[in-house]
Amino acid sequence: MHEFILTDNGINMKSITRAAYYYVINCLPPRMAITILYIRRLGRVPNLKNPKDFSEKVQMSKLYDRNSLMSVCADKILVKKYVKELIGDRYVIPTIWSGKELPVRGARLWSLPYVIKANHLSGGNYFVRSENDLKWAAIEALTERWLSTSYSPHKHEWAYENIEPKILIEPYISRDHVLPLDYKLFVWKGITHYIQVDVDRENSHKRCFYDPDWQKCNFSLEYPLYEGEIEPPKNLGKMISLAEALSAEFDFLRCDFYEVNGVLFFGEMTFYPDSGFGRFIPREWDRRLGDLWE
Predict the structure, then answer these.
(1) Cβ–Cβ < 8 Å for 248, 68
(2) Domain boundaries, the chain
């Protein structure tokens, strides 16, 4: 549900328009809704009869791929058991606490620093680095909003449809309280073809891509291209082999890792990068990645 905001001039019309837009989108058949969202984001009509581009094939996955493991792997809590069974628990960030709502304030005695997450959302994170970040009234409002938000309806990301919303507390994995580089491996049929690297995610978010031999590729996705060179992670080979092991049951998977002080950590998995609405820069790479998805 969307909140209408009262201003000095009355009701915020932008809020009403947004609420009406998403209400209509949610009422439409999935294929029609996806077509409208695709046109709005990418400025062209998707070919859903004979998809060629990566962005089009993500939409087809949302509409038709019903591998039950996808829901397990999209859940930030349940995926940990799956990862442990396949590659061992040494790569899994421990869970400090999880539940359907935050415990009473007196029970929140978690050691700093930590991160508060929603298990069913993309971007549902709140970083608690110090006592100054413990603004519980704001955190409680934020987590309540997370728990009442479904990621599936208007974007039709089926893998999230049956996830029970929960709150997850994990240790804050960082280097001197700075978010580490985020390595996102694009894996088709158990083979890694590209590694997306996200840089400076909290301030001036940029991206770049490397191939498995760590040769930089001249494209980005949705965010500006990071022009600098990035040293390969120490555990690059291990990272690739683990991502390929985790992707064995899927046609396509993006598998995320962090490396902090030479230690490798599993991040998360997704089947719908940017929900298939991300802009490739330049656009030709949308087709190149699409060609890898048979």
Answers:
(1) no
(2) 94-172
- How far apart (Å, rounded) are the C-alpha atoms in residues 94 and 76? 12
173 three-class SS: coil
**Nearest C-alpha neighbor of 216 from the set 234, 198, 228, 204:** 228
CA 251 to chain centre: 18
Give the CA dihedral 157, 241, 94, 184, nearest 10 degrees. -50
pLDDT means per 10 residues, the chain with 294 residues, are 44 70 85 96 98 98 97 98 98 98 97 96 90 97 92 84 96 88 97 97 94 98 97 98 98 97 96 97 98 96
Rg (CA), the chain: 20
What is the C-alpha to C-alpha distance for residues 200 and 181, in angstroms, rounded to an integer?
A: 8
| Cα separation, 67 vs 253, whole angstroms | 12
Write b or e for each residue in 150-180: b if 16 or more Cβ atoms lie within 10 A of its Cβ, otherwise e. bbbbbbbbbbbeebebbbbbbbbbeeeeebb
Query: Which amino acid type is present at position 182?
Result: D
